[in-house]
Design a protein that fits this description.
It is found in: Cell outer membrane. This protein has 616 residues and is mainly α. It has helices at residues 2-10, 28-31, 35-50, 62-66, 103-118, 124-149, 172-189, 201-220, 227-238, 251-255, 258-263, 284-288, 298-303, 323-326, 346-349, 353-358, 367-372, 406-410, 456-470, 473-486, 492-499, 510-523, 529-542, 601-607; strands at 74-76, 267-273, 319-321, 330-332, 338-340, 373-374, 379-380, 385-386, 427-428, 449-455, 545-546, 549-550, 564-569, 576-581. A two-stranded antiparallel sheet has the order 1-3. A two-stranded antiparallel ribbon has the order 2-10.
Length: 616
């Protein structure tokens, strides 16, 4: 049977954060006769949908942070290994396998739908909510792959042997309309609020906003009168978004501590891991953190000692933030005027790199910078140690350009010689919980953890983007401002002064460029947002996809091309310079065929579905 072949080919084993042992011994008849058991069945669907490890488009997994190197925001891995940067260097091919719809998961969703609707014992209220959750989960699963491939096989029922199992791909429009219809059903039937980890009508509207922007670009080429933008705005209104940003919480609270994350009013939907079956291995900090067991130069040992063992076994280099990303964080100058950091007066008045660029004492830079980026001379590891990314520093990669030429200059290989530390001069801090202790193995570090799936900060920017693309620049500014004020920490009047003269919604226009920066610093390391946003904006310029082809030859996205940038700080911390570098696979390259990923050729031939343009 075709589906069994596809299933064996595409589905690999994965770790679920919910233990299903009690339920795999319960019969289907028992499951569909009990509201509690049916709810448990749906809980497992949440785990499988939201915990999917498809790193190109995952919702909430360690891969969602590591995939940032799809863009020039991050360099993934160490300098002697490429890791997940094939996509960045245009080395993808149709023999790669980036996943496809999970037929087994869809069968379980449709089985649940059929049995819940047929039940004579479930209350109407239970049926309504359960069906809303199932529509939401089906939409979430479909959207993850629609982003990657465009049109998908639409399966909306339990398939039997009497059905034609050679299901063709639907058009991109029909696929997105199917997803949006599910989310509209969910928004109309789910409760306004829900227990942690369960979808509400707010979650359905928030996801619909994300889907609508992508649909507008790929289906309609981002034309101003696209009905998808109207759907985004309608969902934003249903969420109660306002100029005050009243739903927003302190930014660091959502990403730096489990206790503050679960209390945050901004998080609409999260995916939690419980310490009874979760360890450091299951979090981004295992893959994004620094490694040090004391193997660094004598100079670093004397001037930058580390008194604890930062031992994250298996840590493979993470995704080091680049100077490209750091440059997007704005600064309030002496008079409060919002500027790019290199245009601020501090650059000429500062006595050292910290005063010129980071302002760590006065915190004048966008507050999200301090919550997201670890930089030279910061305290780290529950404030136990001060880390130095500078030349010959205790966590600067000895093989990176930070320490290039050190053997000629100093007579030895400078920096940290373990090659598991920063190659760019920065480390990720967002999603890193401070309260982590030093243990021989990360599997011994048990911890509760929360991944953000949907939150109001993104919803505000989605609302802003819909208005921006429709050409209503004043409304767009209204919804750009709240995250700058509430999360960036900038003065409200100064934000409006910064935004007021900006205009335009095309590449190079001042308002569009400002929006790109704001979205990048707000959403970095979440759901690979910047990558899909860049593709969405590029597809708008390309005119969308019609009849399996791009309307024109395809826009080449400048932000997805060229070398990565890092910072080299002198040993005394007083001066700096920038350098360019690449992963082992080479510099970032982009061709229009990247707007839709290649479908694995073996699967494609078995299924009979058409290949995406450029990958034939």
């Amino acid at each position: 049977m075709f589906f069994l072949i596809c299933l064996s080919f595409l589905i690999s084993s994965c770790k679920h954060y919910l233990d299903t042992e009690p339920y795999d011994k319960i019969t289907g008849e028992q499951t569909w006769s009990s509201e509690n058991l049916t709810t448990a069945f749906i809980y497992q669907l949440y785990a499988d949908v939201l915990g999917n490890d498809s790193w190109m488009a995952a919702y909430a997994s360690p891969n969602a942070a590591r995939s940032e190197s799809c863009t020039k925001n991050a360099m993934t891995g160490t300098l002697n290994s490429a890791y997940w940067s094939r996509d960045r260097a245009e080395l993808m091919s149709k023999t790669d396998n980036y996943g496809w719809l999970d037929y087994g998961l869809l069968w379980r969703i449709h089985t649940a739908m059929a049995n819940i609707q047929a039940s004579n014992t479930f209350s109407d209220e239970f049926k309504k909510r359960a069906m809303g959750e199932l529509h939401f989960l089906r939409a979430a699963h479909y959207f993850m792959y629609a982003k990657q491939y465009g049109g998908l096989q639409i399966i909306d029922k339990i398939l039997t042997l009497d059905d034609d199992l050679q299901i063709p791909r639907a058009s991109i429009k029909d696929t997105y309309d199917f997803i949006i219809s599910d989310l509209e059903d969910a928004a109309g039937t789910l409760p306004a609020t829900a227990e942690r980890g369960r979808a509400s009508s707010s979650a359905a509207n928030a996801l619909l906003m994300r889907v609508g922007l992508q649909a507008a670009a790929y289906v309609d080429g981002g034309i101003a009168n696209s009905t998808y933008y109207d759907k985004v705005i309608k969902s934003g209104q249903a969420l109660g978004l306002n100029a005050e940003g009243s739903q927003l919480s302190p930014y660091a609270d959502m990403f730096r501590s489990y206790e503050t994350a679960i209390a945050s009013k901004e998080i609409i939907l999260g995916r939690e891991r419980n310490k009874t079956n979760s360890s450091l291995y299951d979090t981004p900090m295992q893959y994004q953190g620094l490694w040090s067991t004391g193997k660094f130069s004598a100079y670093a040992q004397q001037h930058f000692p580390i008194s604890v063992t930062m031992n994250f076994w298996g840590m493979d280099g993470g995704a080091w933030p680049t100077q490209d990303l750091v440059d997007d964080y704005l600064v309030a100058d002496v008079d409060g005027t919002i500027r790019q950091w290199d245009k601020a007066s501090y650059v000429s008045t500062g006595k050292n790199v910290d005063e010129k660029m980071y302002f760590s004492d006065t915190k004048k830079r966008d507050q999200r910078f301090y919550a997201s980026i670890l930089y030279d001379s910061c305290l780290y590891f529950d404030n136990q140690v001060r880390v130095f990314f500078r030349r010959d520093g205790n966590v600067s990669n000895a093989n990176s350009k930070i320490n290039e030429g050190s053997e000629q200059e100093y007579g030895y290989k400078a920096g940290n010689t373990e090659n598991y530390n920063s190659s760019t001069g920065y480390c990720m801090l967002k999603y890193f919980y401070d309260k982590v202790v030093s243990l021989p193995s990360p599997s011994d570090q048990k911890l509760d953890y929360l991944y953000v799936v949907l939150r109001y900060g993104e919803a505000y920017l989605n609302m802003a983007e819909a208005y921006l693309m429709k050409g209503d620049f004043e409304a767009a500014k209204k919804y750009i401002a709240p995250t700058m004020i509430k999360h960036g920490g900038f003065n409200a009047d100064k934000v409006m002064a910064y935004l007021t003269p900006l205009t335009g919604n095309n590449w190079g226009n001042t308002l569009f460029e400002a929006y790109k920066k704001e979205r990048n610093v707000e959403m970095v390391y979440e759901d690979n947002d910047y990558y899909w946003s860049l593709l969405r904006w590029g597809m708008r310029t390309s005119g969308g996809v019609k009849d399996g082809r791009y309307v024109n030859s395809g826009y080449v996205i400048p932000e997805l091309q060229g070398a990565l940038r890092g910072i080299r700080i002198s040993r005394d911390g007083k001066s700096y310079s920038f350098f360019t570098d690449n992963n082992a696979v080479g510099e970032a390259r982009f061709s229009p065929k990247r707007y839709l990923l290649p479908i694995n050729e073996t699967f494609r031939l078995q299924s009979g579905v058409a290949q995406n343009p450029g990958w034939e």
